[in-house]
Amino acid sequence: MVETTLTAREADVEVAPGKTVHAWTYDGRLPGPLIRAHVGDRIVVHLKNELPSPTTIHWHGVRVPIEMDGVPEISQPEVKPGETFTYDFIARDAGLYWYHPHVMSAAQVGFGLYGALLIEDPSEAVDVADQLTLVLSDIGFDEKGVLEPADSGGPAGMVFGREGEHILANGRIMPTLRARSGAPQRWRIVNAAKTRYFLLDLDGQPFYVIGSDGGLLEFPQTKDELLVTPGERVDVIVTPKRPTEGTLTLHANLYNRGYGSVEFRTNEDVLRVAFDDRPDAPAAPLPKVSRHFEPPAVDGATRVDLLLSLPPMTATNGKPEYQINGVPSWKAKPFLAKVGERQVWTVRNDSKYAHPLHLHGFSFLALDEKLQPIHPMAWKDTINVPIDGTVRLLVDFDERPGMWMFHCHILDHADGGMMGHIHLSPP
Ligand SMILES: [Cu+2]
Predict the structure, then answer these.
(1) Sign of the Cα pseudo-torsion (373, 377, 380, 384, in order)
(2) Tens digits of per-residue pLDDT, 214-231?
(3) How far does residue 281's CA lie from ligand 1's centre (Å)?
(4) Contact 167, 270 (CB under 8 A)
(5) In angstroms, rounded to a whole number, what is the distance separating the alpha carbons of residues 312 and 315?
(6) Any idea of the CA torsion for 171, 176, 180, 186, to the nearest 10 degrees?
């Protein structure tokens, strides 16, 4: 059993030498503490709320019972200031997951409330000695260290999705990672930013991708750039090699997720890799990491169509609203599913902004336009739906009935209406 207490409270945290933010934190830390467990462990987390606002914890990507999903008024009551709530569930699947509030999510995540949960399966050991969990995020604050208000920019801020000005890697602005040149490192990365996309580039050195949201891939895939959208995780092996200039930089390249994301901007930096004095490690083949997936049959699966939109003239009280199938979340009726049912969702994006769609409680497989699995197969719970793009996914609803949410993980978009529910009923 892994048992811990997380105290949600305000704290001054140093994000760079001499630069302090008065952030919202778990245990005074940014990001919150890394929770580590093994498959089969029981995880018990006592949340103490010392914030001036109600909160909860959502265990992003974890197959928890609905009572542990952290959605107020659906799975649990809000945890009010001064109260505690105990989360208690079994770690069923290996992978990097993360935790964050599901109350005023855009505000609370943007203020600093997030942390990683690493669930390991000893039988899936990957032979790489140097391992790092990397929580990427961003934060906005003024010269006095006061957080940028959650409603900055008004309705236009919501439509775009608010990004914090400063990129953080494990809570630090542009930290330095020390490495031995030529020695492989395993980086498990989560994008915990409320809006920002990270298109990662290690000065052109390749990423050997071995895992995704829900653990290992069917087989590894080498990439020069790595897109990690809000809520997503990637598991990669990098072999940083000393360049002639001495250090490497992990950049966040521009990705067009809608107007304002590439205009008037340049690439930004995430962290620096510096090399110690040891000679280059001898070249060695990268570990062969694979995983068996049952090829999914789509015959007999229930078909569900989702249309993501931002109608130009629609408004509730004069404000723009994001919609799924023509309605914002506050007017939506739940989608329906039965325990044991297989569904194939076709999600079309008609909004001129990209959206990382997240399904609570269940993982899915991405399919191509012929409804065949996209290889390498991967368990996903968050998937990017590009501008004018369509994604297709297959989901099996297992034995956990309840009201489960799905929403854009640009949390301003979720607050702005791009959210829905699935009522999963017993067979
Ligand atoms: Cu969105």
Answers:
(1) negative
(2) 999 999 999 999 999 999
(3) 43
(4) yes
(5) 9
(6) 20
